[in-house]
Amino acid sequence: MLPYIKSLTISSEVGLCKPDPKIYEFVHKKLNPNGHVWYIDDQEKNLKPAQERLWNTYIADQNGNWIEHVNGLLGLRGGFI
Residue 52 — φ and ψ, nearest 5°? Predict the structure, then answer.
């Protein structure tokens, strides 16, 4: 998975928490403006600020269906995440 991760932000290190829009803006500034952003979270309330930045959002469901979906987007088989 590491080759696909371009940004990892730990809220306690930057002093911001989701769903505060400031943390999304902090991350957005680190990203390639021409790239695709996939944002995955286990809480629906945290998806809206990401969607407002036109990021692709996915809910991390308890059954793990999101893993199969993301693996498909990455063209991976057999579970990479």
Answer: -65, -20
Give 14's contacts (C-beta < 8 A, 6+ positions apart).
23, 26
Six-digit token string for 29: 């500034």
pLDDT in tens, 42-55: 999 999 999 999 99
What does the alpha-carbon distance between residue 76 and residue 68 come to, in Å, rounded to a whole number? 9
The yes-or-no verdict on residue 79 having pLDDT over 70 is no
The letter for the amino acid at 26 is F
Instruction: Select from 25, 1, 6 the least CA-distant residue to 14.
Output: 25
